Amino acid sequence: MKQLKLLAIETTGPFASAALLTGRETVLERVSDRRQSHLSMLIPLIDQLIRESGLQKNELTNIAVSEGPGSFTGIRIGIATARGLAVALGLPLTAVPTLRSFLWKSTDQNAKSTDQNAKATDQNTWCCPLFDARRQQVYTGIYEVDRQLGRTILSDRAIAFEELLQEIDRLDPERKRAIRFYGDGLDRFSEQILSWRADNDIWLAPPEERYQNAAATARCAARLISQGRAVAPALVEPVYLRQAEAERKLAEKKTAPAAVVLHQTMDEDKVVLRQATDKDAARMAELDELCFSRPWSRRSFDAELAADNQTALYLVLEANDRIIAYAGLWKIIDEGHITNVAVRPDRRRRGHGRQLVGELLRIAGTMGIESFTLEVRSSNLAAIKLYESFDFVVAGCRKEYYEDNGEDALIMWRREESGREK
Amino acid sequence: MADDKILTMAFETSCDETSVAILRSGRTVLSNIVSSQIDVHKVFGGVVPEIASRHHLRNIGPVMDQALLEAGLTLDQIDVIGVTNGPGLAGALLIGVATAKAIAYAKDIPLVGVHHIQSHISANYLEHPELEPPFLALVVSGGHTHLIRVEGYGQYRILGRTRDDAAGEAFDKVARVLELGYPGGPAIDRAARRGSAAAVSFKRVLLEKDSLDFSFSGLKTSVLNYVNNEKSRGNPVDSADVAAAFQEAVVDVLVEKATRALELTGDNKLALAGGVAANSRLREKLTAAAGDLGVRLFIPSLALCTDNAAMVACAAYHKYKAGQIDDWNLDAQADMELPMPVYI
Predict the structure, then answer these.
(1) How far apart are CA A11 and CA A76, in angstroms?
(2) How far is B272 from chain A (nearest CA, A)?
(3) What digits encode the pLDDT tens for the residues B72-95?
(4) CB B176 within 8 A of CB B243
(5) Domains in chain B, start-ordered, CATH in brackets?
(6) Which fold is adopted by the domain A106-208?
(7) For A73, which residue in chain B has the nearest alpha carbon?
(8) Active site residue A268
(9) Rounded-to-integer distance, Cα A240 and Cα A157, Å
(10) Which residue of A has its CA nearest to B59?
(11) Looking at this predicted complex, what is its ipTM?
């Protein structure tokens, strides 16, 4: 059989790397020293590696790529690059499970069991990489260190960090296993692991051994290839382990009840803040009459609060079954246009407006709304001050906008840098 | 020119279309495969970057295979590889860039990164082989509203640009409020045909007297306020009328600024480019204005107006001919300036 000449790519973690494995053991590796610059660094790293090895590109026999989980963007850079190389060079591609590849972190098979802190035999040792998946979650899995592909103890998943510790206690109630932890999750959760279990059987990878790297990807790939797992490039798919944020929110929205009690304040008369429903239309119209010289009609509220209105979002504050304040906005793709904020005259100056606006911005933020705008009467200094405290700034003025008294409207905006998903 | 036999393959993944195309001699389209994600994003009411990125990765391989198949070529025959590397959605751009880099590197093919606006302008070269610089270009899309003087291949002078929303963005958002659906451009165009632009009057924002910049954020807000106020009075809102009035306001501003720019530069050629170039009212009014001015108007066919890789390949070809080849560290840039920007 032709000697294996394998190029492996790892871009799922903080540092991109590439490795070249020739024959049984020899692994050359290049790791980027720049965080999150995978796209620009990857081909230059590969080029360096190929030049140093003295190989020609067309002498390669296999390409391997770390498939995820990890940074969504990183996974895609790795897979797109690996597929492109494999297609252009006419080579098969091997997808390496990123978490499992930590079993191949050390070059020497024996090293896995001779670590000073680990227990004597392989069978007693588990490998548990964890990646910070944000939202207090980790991407993780647990494998037995067994000189094979690693028997799965806990299959790959995204779970709350606390839940991972509970799972380990459930799987190993007598705490007989030695556990080796890896991954960028340690940057965040090391202390919590040590406060959960600090015995000698717990080993946390130091920073220099902590992150996924292409040499491990290459060694794992060599094992997978020996089992026939080298396929056409198009068959290799990313493993995200998690839906896109927008898909998750859409699914939540579909299952969410129409009205949700968001939270209760410990006021003397129990104020409840909740999302408005169509049943509130009449009472909100009454409140509008009390508050504004040009109130909205009952019919407008019916339309705003209709169950199928996907654009409007209204919150109400209720005390003793009476609506004392409401605030609402229109969701226009990624912009929120605040329509009205109303507080009963006898309930003003108690922070209700602030509470409503704060919640409105927060909830709209979770729905992907990134910037907000509103208009306010130029004489309404209390409201202007309130909005400024939420980082709204005056962006313009509409002269004599209000028909009742010819007052100017100030246009205010609150813009945010769009956050990128990991 | 264009008597060489250079074969250029290009990748385009800057927003929600995955496209690969192959050109011969920079102007003959051998294949131009576009896989649109419109249906995927419809349910969200706009393009979701993470979902767009996932679909690009899924689609780009099959789209490339199809482009080679239709052109009857293999990768070994490709002379130049072009790719949109900005501006656009970062996560989406990098799928095209990573793929293009890997293939170019593996096959030792020169790699050329292309600015998205440069591509839109180049669509006109494909549609109108007789068009040559200098000319004035009005680029209007979901992400851009630019008036650009094209002084040579790859030589641009930006005369005006939007200070806030792009025109296409305003179309999407107004369509959303009028519940006309996504994407907003075609939806408004359709609805406007049933409505009367005179039913409502929205202010045309022309900014300072000598400015060629655009601003569409105020217009968008005016439409929203109008709808809001009518509702609050319990009046029914005729979405067709509002769509027509809004569209008329946008088109008037675009035509007015393009006219001013033509008067300023003295050009007798005007090229329209970008997705909003598909708007029927804009085509109509710009054609009339160009006629009045004695200016020849160039408009790409619909397929070349929206995002596609043929226009990228055309731009890449010209950059290649000018010796502008990129290194292997080519990166995707979500915000990217046009090459050689000079402001007047």
Answers:
(1) 8
(2) 27
(3) 999 999 999 999 999 999 999 999
(4) no
(5) 7-124+304-321 (3.30.420.40), 133-300 (3.30.420.40)
(6) Nucleotidyltransferase; domain 5 (3.30.420)
(7) B91
(8) no
(9) 10
(10) A234
(11) 0.92
